[in-house]
């Protein structure tokens, strides 16, 4: 079942792949950051961003699963 929460989870998990596979967007030297070419610091920034997005996706998934279990319990109790 596709829900808005699951769409957000999918976006959180797919975004890092799209960012890293679209090499043409970051295959350059400038702007350098503390002497590090853009190509390298952009990729390292995505390590941190990917971690944060994965954590968000996990938290949303856990919340979604708890809500589904609570809904099943409520649905089963009314029978």
UniProtKB/TrEMBL annotation:
It holds the Pfam family DUF3311. It comes from the Bacteria. The chain crosses the membrane at residues 7-27, 39-61. Keywords: Membrane, Transmembrane, Transmembrane helix. PANTHER family: BSL5891 PROTEIN. This is DUF3311 domain-containing protein.
